[in-house]
């Protein structure tokens, strides 16, 4: 019963994000006179939200394949390729990037929505797509944490992947600015260069903190189960 629910959760979530990526890429076309940034260099791939939606699509596809061909055991004797990939993906990118995108978006929306999602975009960016990409990503990543056990791989590798990913995106938004003269996010227009550097440093630090939050939550939720499983396995020998 539980296994079937997990498979269903992974399949539905994969399809949800796959459709969101397809719809956003195909149908959310913003006229140039409404917001020029949407038609600037880079297309949809300017936005971290879009990158994360692709990441979540890939992650839940891997989860689904692992349900079918791998294992969701708490402490598997031999981890399949899909299980190892799933654990690495979730720890290094799946959890921290999803939570980073969701939390920073809603915090900035609360401060001033014009800094992240101007009202002028409402006719072109539907509310359900906004919540799929900025709310559901947090919900589904937390449900994944609760429903399915994982083994966090080596911390240094995970942090290396996460920091490399975020720095790559940071370089990318500067390439976009160099090519088009437009900042991807309006908040950057109101910041001076020193404040912009501080802003990026704070965001990167926050993303790293989110990694440790994910690791801690995983230990809280699954740590006792992992310990009990090891003890019972030792007794059976």
TrEMBL record:
Membrane-spanning residues: 48-68, 88-108, 128-147, 159-177, 197-214
Entry superkingdom: Eukaryota
UniProt keyword annotations, A-Z: Membrane, Transmembrane, Transmembrane helix
Topology relative to the membrane: Multi-pass membrane protein
Parts forming coiled coils: none
Cellular localization per UniProt: Endomembrane system
GO CC, any one term: membrane
Reactions catalysed according to its record: 12-octadecanoyloxy-octadecanoate + H2O = 12-hydroxyoctadecanoate + octadecanoate + H(+); 13-octadecanoyloxy-octadecanoate + H2O = 13-hydroxy-octadecanoate + octadecanoate + H(+); 12-hexadecanoyloxy-octadecanoate + H2O = 12-hydroxyoctadecanoate + hexadecanoate + H(+); 9-(9Z-hexadecenoyloxy)-octadecanoate + H2O = (9Z)-hexadecenoate + 9-hydroxy-octadecanoate + H(+)
Family membership noted in the UniProt record: Belongs to the AIG1 family.
Name of the protein described by the UniProt record: Androgen-induced gene 1 protein
Record organism: Atta colombica
């Amino acid at each position: 019963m539980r296994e079937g629910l997990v498979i269903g959760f992974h399949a539905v979530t994969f399809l949800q994000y796959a459709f969101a990526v397809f719809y956003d890429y195909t149908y959310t076309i913003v006229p140039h006179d409404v917001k020029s940034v949407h038609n600037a260099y880079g297309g949809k791939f300017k936005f971290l939200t879009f990158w994360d939606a692709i990441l979540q699509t890939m992650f839940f596809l891997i989860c689904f394949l692992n349900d079918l061909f791998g294992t969701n055991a708490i402490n598997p004797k031999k981890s399949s390729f899909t299980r190892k990939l799933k654990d690495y993906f979730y720890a290094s990118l799946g959890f921290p990037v999803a939570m980073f995108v969701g939390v920073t978006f809603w915090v900035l929306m609360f401060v001033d929505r014009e800094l992240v999602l101007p009202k002028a975009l409402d006719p072109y960016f539907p509310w359900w797509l906004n919540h799929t990409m900025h709310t559901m990503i947090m919900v589904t990543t937390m449900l994944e944490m609760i429903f399915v056990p994982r083994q966090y791989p080596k911390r240094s590798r995970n942090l290396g992947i996460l920091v490399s990913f975020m720095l790559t995106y940071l370089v990318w938004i500067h390439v976009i600015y160099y090519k088009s003269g437009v900042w991807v996010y309006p908040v950057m227009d109101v910041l001076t260069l020193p404040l912009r550097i501080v802003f990026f440093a704070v965001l990167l630090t926050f993303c790293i903190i989110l990694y440790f939050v994910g690791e801690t939550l995983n230990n809280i939720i699954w740590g006792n189960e992992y310990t009990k499983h090891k003890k019972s396995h030792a007794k059976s020998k």
